[in-house]
TrEMBL record:
It comes from the Bacteria. Pfam families: DUF3562. This is DUF3562 domain-containing protein.
């Protein structure tokens, strides 16, 4: 059974709203993280979920350092 296609724009918008980060910044981090994950991946089914989690964690960690 095929996995539903993830709408990257919706994910980026959601992360931007959750983390109070500009959409352009989130989009760049998402694209960079996805590229890094794809280089070593053998299974791609959960890639969007894992990338979104990593981006959220990265942004939360960077904002906690600023405070």
């Amino acid at each position: 059974m095929a996995q539903p296609q993830t709408n990257v724009d919706e994910v980026v918008q959601a992360i931007a709203a959750e983390t109070n980060t500009p959409t352009e910044t989130v989009s760049k981090i998402y694209a960079d993280t996805l590229a890094n994950y794809k280089t070593d991946a053998r299974v791609f089914d959960y890639m969007p979920l894992l990338v979104a989690k990593k981006v959220r964690d990265t942004l939360r960690h960077s904002t906690s350092r600023k405070n």
